[in-house]
Amino acid sequence: CRLMERGVSFQLPRGVSFTLPLTYTTNDHNSCGIVRYECDAEPEMVFNCHCRDCQQLAGGPCTTAVLVHEDKLEVQGELTCYTSQGDNGGLVHHYFCPVCGTPVTVKPEVFAGLMSIKAASLDDNSWVRPTMDIFTKSKQPWIELSGETDKFSEGPA
Questions:
Q1: Least enclosed by CB within 10 Å: which of 97, 118, 133, 152?
Q2: In Å, how far are 41, 56, 57, 112 from 18, measured between CA atoms?
Q3: 22 and 47 in contact (C-beta within 8 Å)?
């Protein structure tokens, strides 16, 4: 992704402040440049999800997500959607670039009005600091969780 030069400061839990880049494009790691998105809101939360669904779709032990208000997120370009049933039983809509397959956003129906941006799709994700780990019951045994996050065996119901 290429970060456009805009930002806003905000305060995350635990008294740590970061600068949130507001405009991103999803052509950094995939270089296709087909999908762009902009968000002009502070995140509601930043978390690591260890559910089996996220593990399989991320191709790794978890995914890190930035949860924002859906109406503040503008996506330019077509995304492909894959819908699955989450570990909590609710539907989860996963949106990918149709050309290169990069995961861009996720819409868990349990989070009404909110959308998750995949932190890996951000050009500069160095500011991302998860405040919680969810679905730790599915965590891979070789993963060491941060001592700075709240842990939840499951996710929101």
A1: 152
A2: 13, 30, 28, 26
A3: no
Nearest to 108 by CA among 136, 68, 145: 68
Per-residue pLDDT band at 95 (split at 50, 70, 90): very high
Rounded-to-10 torsion of CA 149, 7, 2, 36: 90
Question: Counting Cβ atoms within 10 Å, is residue 9 exposed (0-12), middle (13-18) or buried (19+)?
Answer: exposed
Q: What are phi and psi of 52, to 5 degrees?
A: -60, -35
In angstroms, how far is CA 94 from the centroid of its own chain?
11
Q: Measure the CA–CA gap between 68 and 141, rounded to whole angstroms.
A: 30
Classify burial at 67, counting beta carbons within 10 Å of its beta carbon; exposed 0-12, middle 13-18, buried 19 or more.
Answer: middle
- The DSSP code for 56 is H
Q: How far, in Å, CA of 97 to CA of 140, rounded?
A: 27
Residue 36 has pLDDT above 50, yes or no: yes
Q: Encoding tokens for residue 68?
A: 């924002």
d(Cα 108, Cα 40) in Å, to the nearest integer? 20
Flag whether pLDDT at 113 surpasses 70.
yes
